[in-house]
Amino acid sequence: MRAIPKYDIRGIGIWGFQEQAQFVDYLLADGALKTGMLVAINAEKIILAEQNPLLSELIKSAEYKYADGISIVRSIKRKYAAASCLQRIAGVDLWQALMRSAGLRRIPVFLVGGKPEVLAKVEQKLVAAWGVKIVGSHSGYFKDEERSALFQAIQESGAALVTVALGSPKQELFMRCCQQIYPNALYMGVGGTFDVFSGTVKRAPKVWQSLGLEWLYRVLAQPTRIGRLARLCKYASYHYRGQL
Ligand code: UDP
Questions:
Q1: pLDDT > 70? residue 156
Q2: Does residue 239 have its Cβ closer than 6 Å to ligand 1?
Q3: What whole-number distance in Å separates Cα of residue 216 and Cα of residue 42?
Q4: What residue ranges define each of the domains in the chain, with the CATH number in brackets?
Q5: Among residues 140, 82, 85, 137, which one has the least CA distance to residue 115?
Q6: pTM, two decimal places
Q7: CA atoms within 13 A on the CB side of 149
Q8: What percent of the chain has pLDDT over 70?
């Protein structure tokens, strides 16, 4: 496999996989799933990290950061002429591709996050669609005191792929702590993916996705997200001033 370039956007090193299939092949190369942490990078997360030194440190040390947001892809193209063919890799699509491969290869999976009824739907659908071997799951609403028991359950399950849907920065903090106890897995933060996959939240239609407006669709569909626009505007100002 060709060497994968890395691009720096505001101090965060982002892998330049040309497309999702290349990324999945890389994670599954040599017959074994890589270990480490996958973090989707979008404009909002860059700003969140700048406001939260712990999150910033944690994202910087995560092994696999990828361009999930269209604004990040545009910024990379603006900063690096050689990246003209780079495509967005949406976390929700990457997660589904990994789940399909996990089902085919009987890779043990642990799911954390979401409301109990949402998580139950996700589990049913994963088994029905791809025969995913789910070795454990836990909904996303638990007390801090319950965390260590959950870390232990993940370790004892022998999961090779742990997907965590708690939103940012909660999911990154959770994955880092769990990784310290149990490093033998690939951890993936998936935000609202369980809501979309279970059909609880509708994803933007393809035409919005292809116009790079999925973020706007999410704000319009869930007006409680309006506060997040301030972060997007701040990021846009970095982009247009070339402060990348
Ligand atoms: N969530 C959770 N526990 C929490 C807070 C959030 O399980 O304490 C879940 C929530 O149910 C939702 C997801 O985390 O499924 C966060 O989704 P959001 O769309 O906010 O994440 P984003 O994709 O924007 O990072």
A1: yes
A2: no
A3: 13
A4: 6-241 (3.40.50.10700)
A5: 140
A6: 0.93
A7: 7
A8: 99
